[in-house]
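Deviations from the work plan: none for this task. Representative record:
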Amino acid sequence: MAGEWLSVKTEVARVIEFRGVTKRFSDGTVAVDDLELVAQAGQITVFVGPSGCGKTTSLRMVNRMIEPTSGTVIVGDRDVMSGDPAQLRRGIGYVIQQAGLFPHRTVLDNIATVPLLVGRPRRRARERAAELMDLVGLAPELAPRYPAQLSGGQQQRVGVARALAADPPVLLMDEPFSAVDPVVRESLQDELLRLQSELGKTIVFVTHDIDEAIKLGDRVAVFRTGGTLAQYDEPGVLLSRPADSFVAHFVGRDRGYRRLGFLSCRGLPIGELATVAVGAQGPSQGWVLVVDGERRPLGWLDGNTARGRTVGTLDLVPGGSLYDTGAGSLRSALDAALSAPSGQGVAVDGDGRVVGSVCADDVLRVLTGEGHHEATVRS
Amino acid sequence: MTWVLGNLDVIRERTLEHLVLALPPVLLGLVIAIPLGWLANRTGAGRAILTNVAGLAYTIPSLALFVLLPPLLGTGILDSRNVIVALTVYTVALLVRTVADALGAVPTVIVDAATAMGYPPARRFVAVELPMAVPVILAGLRVAAVSSISLVTVGSVIGFGGLGRMFTDGFQRSIPAEIIAGIVVVLVIALVVDGLILALGRVLTPWNRIGQAAGRGT
């Protein structure tokens, strides 16, 4: 269980610092050029940029898979170049593209790799691996399988579990979700955010996908070709104030709209919303929202088709997205309003019960209103 | 057939002698080829040198080797160790390239993952690279074992041929049944040993069969 898992947590999160780090390969190419960056303890720092921008090279200098030509990489309070590299790496979780699982070991033994390496007894290491399977949402019956028998998404979960098995304070993730389909990728991203809210690791995450960077990062470092840092900021700032045209271009289209995802809904009015329960008398005109016995939304009903008949579930027009008044951003509020057939976005509470409506005009009014503060709200 | 029934003791004795001469070189050769293959896989130059030397060694005629070895080893011309050393040389020659190829075929991403988990190089070799190379190495070992079993017969020329002595004896004394019986037993031994290595591979690599099954399924 997650609770027990947290109780065996031994190490506090650590800061990762790049001090004037340059990597020049033997053929003369400069992969990373004088990088100055601090990845805060307990946060997700995302390195993003086009291919050849040095983001993966930078990541691999943290666990000394690549050694810097000059400058210093510091994890916690130690220069990574001091001491034994194998020792260093056992304290740093590593997740890579396509998981990089050992095909000759079962799921359980893959996850138990680092605990066994650091000398835990086999039985204890396997117990620990089983706990981690639970933590990352893998069914226990997958334990004796081999990686080739798993789906891409499951393999990636095993990869994350394996990286976390020795409870390292630092986690490096190198394009871990790029080989899975978009739907699975999104659920893995959500899962990572959920895990991180429980674990509070220092995570460095490499991706070439700016949307992924903006979704996951507490802070995002945009690299440009040639290995220089173009901008290092919170994702909301990246969207609202890109440092230059390279960043603006890289951040891409719909920047203004996507930025709404980082703005809080403070001051957004919740309006009245006409609802009707299944089995009740339907409306004779206009749109009403049909709800179940718990006041959860089922869909919309057009008064012109219903004409006062008893409300069934057959005539329902599917609803749009929902706006969660507790955790939602301005983006989710606006999207709820724009995607509802009636133009009234459905606002719900944390349990999914309807509390009222939001309209697009109000979102824009909040946006242009005075005293609006940016907040890191995750959509 | 009458010859066979009347000489079961001889056949049993020759078969045992054959196994004692043929199998230890296969094991010894494997043990020597693994570190050499690892070395060959480390650098391009090392690979070129080792695989070429191995290829060259395999082209030395076996009869010549049996004759060349005694002065080199300080053994007598009629010594079973000559046969064992010669066959070990051939096994190594066959397996060095196989081992190097098998290790080279382990995906970089897996080796990298193992390094990043904190495996020191030697432990990584034993725990990750070698197990993953097992299917290819065993395929090479099957060829080496069958080759060794067949080459033993040449040793009969210097008096240590195992079942091969049934060929020379049968020829000299004009007993065709003895020659045929010798060939049949050599074939049976080769098939049985080949089958045993195949079975060993299945036991050692359950993951590999599953991978293949999954591959076929898609």
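Chain B touches chain A at residues 109-110, 112-120, 123, 128, 131-132, 205-208, 210-211, 214-215 (CB under 8 Å).
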